[in-house]
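Quick one: structure for this chain?
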Amino acid sequence: MSAWRPEWDEAAKSGGDGGLSLGPVTVPLWTKRLLLANLGIFVVLYLLGATGYRISNVLAVNPTWWWTEPPFLPLWQVLTYGFVHDLSGFGHVLYNSLVLFFFGSMLERALGGRRFLAFYLAALLAGGLLHAVLSPIGVHEVSLADGRSILTGPFYGPMVGASGAIVACLVACAMLFPRATMILFVFPIPLWVGATGLVVMDLLAFTRMEGQVAYHVHLAGALLGYLFIKRRWHLRAVPNPVEVLADRRRAGEQRSRQQDEQRMDELLARISRDGMGSLSSSEKEFLKRMSKRS
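Got it. Here's what it folds into:
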């Protein structure tokens, strides 16, 4: 994936818990919450049966809704699809959960919770938007034996699953800790070798357009994970949304006070020049309100 760089050791230490740990297994906060969300939503939708499939269709990135039928541009889907998995079996959600358990935990310990969550959601967003944008390419109509016709294409069809974000976490971990050991079946291999092999397999499958797997989303996640570390985006500060809103509120209040003070100065200058009778009732009410505030 990349040569080892000394500053990555410092980046890992800045996460609070350090990078790899051989101590008791603990799952960091946001990794745990993402795991619970993925598994919990899957169980609920699975138990709902046909209703669960309908809800899944609403939450998936559904090209039909984006380009051919209302509501058009259902923007919520570019994030919600990552919390829904294939309801026809347990393999999809269990595989993603297992990889997230190991590599999400590793990455969150290295980056810290806020930065990890921002990265994970950005990976979901990138994959969802990519699928929505590519879905009209190569679409054609196919007639079925019963006389009906359907649209199909290399990128067409609803997409669900967190695989793109999971691959992003794996590649980011391989960039930060290329010498870490992962177990492939029963064989220990360096993490960078495992991540490289996975990306190559996804790339080969993508060129052949195999099966129903969204390999383009996997590759988008891999690219984001690579750039996230290579471009040192992981070292940038992540703003706290609460603090940002508070700062904006304080800035707005300060601008309002400055405008009120400027208006009061203008009114006092007019009173000095033309007398109190030159003010309208609203201007007199403003002066009264300002005198109480001061």
